[in-house]
Amino acid sequence: MTRIATFPTLDDAESALDWIGVDFGEGDGAFAGELGGDDRELLEAAIEDEESPAPVRDLARALLARWDADGTETLAFEVGWGG
User: How far is CA 1 from the centre of its chain?
Assistant: First the structure.
C-alpha cells in the first residue's frame, strides 16, 4: 500500500480525509483506504474548492496524481501521522 502523505498529528490526517470525503479506516500510525468510482470527483472538488485548506488540497492532488500515475481503476492508499 502506498503512503501518500504524513501529517503532524492524527487529528490533522483525519480532518484532511474527512474534508475530502473518502472512506478510510484507522490502522497502526496511518489511515488506510481504497479510492474508486466517485472518489475522483471528491478529490477534484476538494482541489477546486477555494475554502479547502492548503493541506487538504495538497493531499487531494497527491492522491489524484498517484491514482493517475498508477492507471488503475482503484487505488489503495495510506495517510500517516507523526514522525
Answer: 13
| pLDDT, tens digit (0-9, with 9 covering 90-100), for 3-47 | 999 999 999 999 999 999 999 999 889 999 999 999 999 999 999
- Give the domain ranges of the chain: 2-81
pTM of the model: 0.94
Q: How far is the CA of 19 from the CAs of 26, 27, 64, 71, in angstroms?
A: 16, 19, 15, 25
Q: How many whole angstroms separate alpha carbon 49 and alpha carbon 27?
A: 29
CA dist., res. 50 & res. 44, Å (int): 12
Which residues 6+ apart lie within 8 Å of 83 measured at CB? Answer: none
Cβ–Cβ under 8 Å, residues 55 and 7? yes
The interaxial angle of helices 54-70 and 39-48, nearest 10 deg, is: 140
